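Open question from group meeting: does this chain pack into something compact, or does most of it stay loose? Before anyone orders reagents, we agreed to write out a predicted structure and look at it together. Recording both the input and the output here so the notebook holds the full record.
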Amino acid sequence: MLIKVCGMRSPENITALLELPVDLMGLIFYKKSPRHVPDSAAKEILTVSEGKVKRVGVFVNEAVETVVQKVAKFKLQYVQLHGKEDANYCYDLLAHSAKTFGCDDELRLIKAFSVDEAFDFSITKNYTPYCEYFIFDTKGKNAGGNGFMFDWSLLKQYQERIPFLLSGGIDAQSAAAIKALDLPKMIGVDLNSKFEISPALKDVGLLKGFIEELKILQENT
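Structure tokens returned:
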């Protein structure tokens, strides 16, 4: 199971985090987020993370040109779209990236969807040509990081081929419930606010315990 930890910023905290088996690290570039990463942090973040983890840039309704600039500055392997970006936006972003970097596989997309009882899973079909993963998160007042779970049974309605990560309010006690889910397309979890000491500062010990429990449960299946 893929482990994504989102909302990182401090080089020291990132260094400690990367002692754990983390696959994806999220850097949030949404200016309204308390976990926003400024351009000035790029050099230090690259120094401690280069070659150790795949970096994911998280954006909310951002201009395509700005996203591509951040991709270059932070050497992002993934872009996570967490706003109201449509499929045409995904096409434009990949095209702009290909033109900028000279090839079309410099950038991989993750589209996040905010889920509640009224969510129509059929809209995900439009994004399948462009995305490597989807994220299903809790619909709330914020674009992300609302800190509570949605009804995971709703995910049984998902029918597309793109694998997804589960997000939204996952905490240190969630491992058993996650392992119990019978969702073949779920290939990972996205962890954030429930593992924080303060915004953008993760409790690495808490993360370690959760990841170890989840992996033990997997191995004992």
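Observations to bring back to the group:
Residues 67 and 111 are 14 Å apart (CA to CA).
Residues 204-219 form the longest helix (16 residues).
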